[in-house]
# Entry
Amino acid sequence: MKGLLLLLGCALGAFAETKLLKNATVIDGTGSAAKPGTSILVVDGHITQIGHNLKAPKDAEVIDLTGKFVIPGLIASHGHLGNTKGFIQDPKNFTRENAEAQLKNYASYGITTMVSMGSDQSPVWAIRTEQRAGRPSMARVITAGRGFTGKNGYPTSAMGMKGVPYEIETVEQAQKAVDEQAALKVDLIKIWMDDHLGKEKKISPELAKAIIAQAHKHGLKVAAHIFYREDARALMEGGLDMIVHSVRDKPVDDSFIALMKKTGARQGAATLAREISMFYYAEPRPFLDDPFFTRGVGGPNGEIVTRMKSAAYQQGQKIDPDHKLYPDFLETAKKNLKKLYDAGVPVGMGSDSGPPVRFPGYFEHWEMELMQEAGLKPAQIIVCATRNNAQSYGWDKQIGTLEKGKWADLVVLGKDPSADVKNMRAIEMTMVAGNVAYKAR
Ligand SMILES: [Zn+2]
# Structure
């Protein structure tokens, strides 16, 4: 009889997994003010209720969050999954094991979704399919599959990147390659349009526009790596959906802003952390001893920290003749970000993490600090990193805010992130789809 009841109970769904996150200060990602004394009911990974005085259903696991802050899981709008191990970037590194270890590491930094921008290898498809069929316990991946550049175009000269993006020479090739990616059900299309300060070939605007047009035929959004303002302008005139770096050569001007507003193009990511990393490692820096950094890179005595602390490594950073130009690019990027934000252009959060010495998770926190230095307020940055990023990729019905019906992708913090984005480092727990993906010890 007891067995029968149990069976019946299962069939009726009486054994749903229920968690009540009780009495937190909730910052829901919509831009509304923080709500103290708020509880969140999570059933089978989804938020079913959010509000005051929620009663714990029978059999619910109750997690008391008195004194804690809860934000939506952070979304990293520009990363590169799986190809890097230590200091080496190579597509051969892209195993399921390496990619999933990185997705768990992202989750340990409060990142519950990352967008991988055009350098993925075949294991990504199975990882993504499984994640979307179930309830992952690691960061979700949104994939641009294999990205696009011109013949011998940037970034094919970067370590491990030859053969990674398509190198497009004709409109027909562009259309065929986009069709291939669409057949794989890629989440978006990525284009690199850059000559690496005159050192490399750049895809022509005509070919880039052909890629955009073909992607749009398939209903796919297109994100672009750009450096120069006029390249970004040409792409947006061709219908580009978002730029995923800042314009770094010139200030964005009124006509540029007007074009973004007219076309709806977004600043999907500003990648300020990438810009600072181009010169910052040339000096001894305190972050190399910061446990928040070292915990994600093999510890304080691991290969990465040991090598980056060495004088030889630091000297090596100055060898690039363009090294001295990067502080100005960072300043331009920061000013442009603030100007676009103030003009009402939708801004996301992304750091270009994943390639060597661009550390997944840590980089996103660095990015948010640099956004704060650029003049954005912590409450604004939270929205950029959550709701805005979800909107950029068409995921805003599932994630990005803490609202009824959405996945319980969230971060529990011990400090108030609206006082200072650095408080987002006080991560006590990360949940993805209601699963504990990380818990601080
Ligand atoms: Zn990138």
